[in-house]
Design a protein that fits this description.
alpha/beta; four-stranded mixed sheet; two-stranded antiparallel ribbon; 2 helices; 6 strands; globular
Length: 112
């Protein structure tokens, strides 16, 4: 946690750029690199849908979300994916369960 979930991207591209996404995301989101997860979702398009990057994470300030989105967009644009949509799915620590118990006292999360 957090998760960067890519849809509509090439697997080889993500494998190659994974270290860049992890490093930059951890830097701008102020989270340890070891907890950043990257996934490629395989989907079947029923209607036309854009490439997207879903970022599942605990809430930060609007300014922090803006910086994260801008940084991810810059990486994608450099690699020819500037048209990708980026959006956040915000999670609540008390509603995130690990081994059947809600998370508490997350050392790297501001205000927890």
């Amino acid at each position: 946690m957090p998760y960067l979930r890519f849809k509509g991207f090439d697997e080889e591209f993500l494998k190659k750029e994974c270290p860049v996404f992890v490093e930059e995301f951890s830097r701008v989101a102020a989270v340890p690199r070891e907890i950043v997860k990257i996934e490629l979702l395989n989907i079947t398009q029923i209607t036309a849908t854009p490439r997207s990057l879903e970022i599942l994470m605990f809430p930060r300030t609007q300014e922090r979300h803006n910086v994260i989105a801008s940084t991810m967009h810059d990486i994608l644009t450099r690699e020819g994916y500037g048209d990708a949509h980026i959006f956040f799915i915000l999670l609540t620590p008390s509603l995130y369960y690990k081994q059947g118990a809600p998370l508490r006292n997350i050392s790297w999360l501001p205000g927890s």
